[in-house]
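Cross-check.
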Amino acid sequence: SVPFLIRLFPSVLTKFVYLNFLAFPFFADFRRPELLVNNTVSLYLTTEPGVTVGIWHTVPGSRGAEARGKDQRWYEEALADAHPVIIYLHGNGGTR
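Predicted model, tokenized:
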């Protein structure tokens, strides 16, 4: 019966393979990364109309003292400076 159900509802297979409906840890607020990770701010990028991607921008420990107490604008300007940017793609859990 499982192959028949997968044939009827292919999205069910995707849900169980990728488990993107689970968010772990269960009660963490990922919109406030400064509570979890030092020198981090939550930003949102609009990739195309109707699609917004949430990101965390974390500066390295060597710039930690400089970043302490700064607002979101400072982090956005730090993305545009000459320092390299490393993109880490965390997976499909639906959280950062």
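The chain has four helices and two strands. Residues 20-79 form one domain. Passed to J.P. for a second look.
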